[in-house]
From TrEMBL:
Its cofactor is Zn(2+). Zn(2+) binds at H89, C115, C118. This is dCMP deaminase. Pfam families: dCMP_cyt_deam_1 (PF00383). One of its GO terms (molecular function) is zinc ion binding. Keywords: Hydrolase, Metal-binding, Zinc. Gene3D superfamilies: Cytidine Deaminase, domain 2.
Length: 172
């Protein structure tokens, strides 16, 4: 990038979301989220254990497994899902630590596509747009359908490159 050029707004806010994700102590996935109204940053959050409680790096992950019935190519299949229940997701923390009035008509930039639970919460939060980078294929179909039903702009920044200092390995 030419040093005289500014980053576009999507890149700027996604860079901030990735920098916020570096605060996460989760060994499986570092996720950051930012709340933006217009071009004004209103809040940031990352995934982690509740304040004052040992996190995954200290106490280990609390993995819960469940199964979900899905249809692929006309066939019903069971999908195994694993998730850490010690961790509050970045989107959930963002909603906990921002005001409803600030969320009305705002955008959320999040490093990872929201899971079904976070998507449900965001759908009722007053936001009008979700911008994400890394896909979460386990919930993409139903999350995309719900966002369409709600009229929430839901888009992926596919050609985005995160800042090098935020790179982490992801466990699925």
């Amino acid at each position: 990038m030419n040093p005289d050029q500014r980053k576009d707004w999507d890149t700027y806010f996604m860079d901030i979301a990735y920098m916020v994700s570096t605060r996460s102590r989760c060994s499986r996935r570092h996720v950051g989220a930012v709340l933006v109204q217009g071009k004004k940053l209103l809040g940031t959050a990352y995934n982690g254990a509740p304040s004052g409680v040992p996190d995954c790096s200290e106490a280990g992950c609390m993995i819960a497994e469940d199964y979900e019935l899905a249809v692929e190519n006309g066939q019903e299949i069971m999908i195994k899902k694993q998730r850490c229940v010690r961790t509050i997701h970045a989107e959930q923390n963002l909603l906990l630590f921002t005001d409803r009035i600030d969320r009305e008509g705002s955008s959320v930039y999040v490093t990872d596509e929201p899971c079904w639970t976070c998507a449900n919460m965001l759908a009722n939060s007053g936001i009008t747009e979700i911008v994400y980078h890394r896909p979460y294929p386990k919930d993409t179909g139903k999350v995309t359908a719900m966002m369409s039903q709600k009229g929430i702009v839901f888009r992926r920044l596919e050609s985005y490159d995160p800042p090098r200092e935020t790179a982490t390995e992801i466990e699925n």
